[in-house]
Amino acid sequence: MTTINTTTIKIGTFEIVSINKIKPSEYNRDICDKHATKQGESLKDLNWAGPLKVDNQYNLMDGHHKFTWCLRNNVDRIPVYKMWWLNNLTPKQVLSVILKLNAKVLNWKPEMLLSRYGKLDENYRIADEEQQRYGIKNMPPSTLIYAFFNEASSTDKFREGRCKIVNLEHAKKILLELSRLRNEYGDSMVGGTAMREIARQSHVCFKQELRFFDYLIDEYEDMLRSNHPYTNNIKELRKHLDKKIKRYANK
Fold first, then answer.
1. % helix / strand / coil in the chain, to the nearest 5?
2. Interatomic CA distance for residues 111 and 118, integer angstroms
3. Chain centroid to CA 196: how far?
4. For residues 95 and 27, is the Cβ–Cβ distance under 8 A?
5. pTM over the 0.85 mark
6. CB 3.0 to 4.6 Å from 56: which of 87, 147, 215, 241, for a disulfide?
7. Phi, psi at residue 102, to the nearest 5°?
8. pLDDT, tens digit, for every residue of 62-111?
């Protein structure tokens, strides 16, 4: 059982302040107009059932959609719960708190995390620039994250902004080849899960020799040309390519 230290409970203070005193975060996820409208409807029905959460400098930590609705509708005074122990945070700490307070919100997509951490971390910035260049439709974020970090987009390491680029040159090779294959064979043939798997296996190949990567791409392209039944069956694709690479390594 997980326990919390109850001898040093920190309790914030409740205040009613001018909306101009509150500083929304540039690191929060993009505002969804539909969600902001729903928050406004909730306020009309229930009034302030829950205040906005701010740190000791009134940086907004939780409640950006509610804040946005109030700003758009000329609400000038709003209640806040000030977590005074969150004091003089760095930008990365601000983002960390925002994410922790929104842990159950599934709207923080991988591309949003790349974008936000990209403002604070060089590794994420580079990856985000490539995401912008390729476009989400052409390069699924999970594939790009594997290519750069060899990490799943759902892992705590990625979501907490702790990933480092494994090898920039290799990552760009992976993306270039996968982009070429998708353009030539279409996204129905070269699906997102398959791209992610090729990116994952590419790192294994690069640990051996560059020729292993070339062989992996050639084998996968042969499967696409022949409309192989395993191309979009991730479990069978993994086993099939694993066997091929092991045989190639033993030649």
1. 55, 10, 35
2. 10
3. 15
4. yes
5. no
6. 87
7. -110, 30
8. 999 999 999 999 999 999 999 999 999 988 888 888 887 875 545 678 99
